[in-house]
Amino acid sequence: QVQLVESGGGLVQAGGSLRLSCAASGFVFSKTVMKWVRQAPGKGLEWVSTIGPSGGDTYYSDSVKGRFTISRDNAKNTVSLQMNSLKPEDTAVYYCSKDTDRGQGTLVLVSS
Q1: pLDDT score recorded for residue 71
Q2: What is the pLDDT of residue 55?
Q3: What is the arrangement of strands in the sheet containing 18-25, beginning at the earlier edge strand?
Q4: What string of pLDDT tens digits covers the 112 residues of the chain?
Q5: d(CA 58, CA 86)
Q6: Predicted local confidence at residue 104, as pLDDT
Q7: Nearest 5°: phi and psi at 66?
Q8: Cβ proximity of 103 and 17 under 8 Å
Q9: Burial level of 15, CB count in 10 A (0-12/13-18/19+)?
Q10: Taking phi first (over 0 means left), then psi (-120 to 50 degrees means alpha), and beta for anything else, what does residue 8 get?
Q11: Which end of the chain is more exposed for a tag (fewer CB within 10 A), N or C?
C-alpha cells in the first residue's frame, strides 16, 4: 500500500533553514506528481509546493515562493523540501502527499 514517511522537522529560529524529506513506497513514484502541504495550528490544510514526475516542473504558493525549493530523487523514491529564510508563520505540520494520500507529517516550529 501507499506509504509516505516525512522527516526533518524541528525547532528553528526565524531566518533559519530546514530540509524536509519524504520517503515514498507502494506506487510508481517516478510517474507520480508529488506535493507538500502544511497545516498550521488551528487552521486548514494549505498547499505549499508541487513537483512533476520528472522534477522539471515545480510550483509554489505565493507564501513560500523564493524561499522554499522542492526536489525529488526518483532513484531513491524521495521528495524533499528545502526551506530557507523561515518565518514564524511557517510553523505547521508538513505533509508530503500524492493524490489524497498523506504521511504522518513532520512538525516545523519557527521561533521569533
Answers
A1: 98
A2: 94
A3: 3-7, 18-25, 78-83, 68-73
A4: 999 999 999 999 999 999 999 999 999 999 999 999 999 999 999 999 999 999 999 999 999 999 999 999 999 999 999 999 999 999 999 999 999 899 999 999 999 9
A5: 20
A6: 96
A7: 90, -10
A8: no
A9: exposed
A10: left
A11: N
Nearest-angstrom CA–CA distance, 1 and 27: 8
CA-to-CA distance for 51 and 71, rounded, in angstroms?
7
Contacts of 68 by beta carbon, 8 Å cutoff, 6+ apart: 48, 49, 60, 81, 82, 83, 84
CA pair distance 93, 109, nearest whole angstrom: 9
Distance CA 92, CA 40 (A): 4
